[in-house]
Specification:
Layout: E1 12-18, E2 35-41, E3 46-52, E4 55-61, H1 66-75, E5 79-84, H2 101-109, H3 119-126
Antiparallel strand pairs: 1-2, 1-5, 2-3, 3-4
């Protein structure tokens, strides 16, 4: 797991990668990296954000230890990377504008990497 260097409260995020997707067009993407989602650390809980074609799935996760949370999501079949969020989230998409799970995740963690457009590219960009 990529380790965050800055352990300030609220600075961490867990990026989740999955080989599962309901969209047929993702079949051309690398196995295991057809979708991504993000968990953002809050003070005593985590915010799960999963951008789906039908809308954004949000959930509050009552956990404080990122290791336990990572283990739980790995058990569910996700690949997990821990990262340090860089500054403020990126600009929100315009109303009605569709965005990919990668674009959403990059915005959520404050990553500006225009050439990163697939989940596997995001994984390779972040992983050590």
């Amino acid at each position: 797991m990529a380790r965050a260097t800055d352990k300030r409260r609220g600075a961490r995020a867990l990026i989740l990668f999955s080989g599962e997707s309901s969209l047929r067009r993702t079949v051309v993407l690398r196995r295991g990296f057809r979708h991504c989602a993000v968990l953002l650390e809050r003070q005593t809980w985590w915010l799960f954000l999963n951008p789906l074609a039908s809308g954004l799935l949000r959930a509050r996760v009552a956990a404080t230890d990122p290791e336990d949370l990572s283990r739980a999501y790995r058990t569910l079949g996700w690949t997990v990377l821990e990262v340090c969020r860089s500054g403020s989230p990126g600009r929100a998409a315009r109303p009605g504008q569709r965005q990919s799970c990668v674009a959403f995740t990059k915005r959520a963690i404050g990553l500006r990497a225009p050439g990163v457009v697939t989940p596997h590219q995001l994984f390779r960009h972040i992983a050590p």
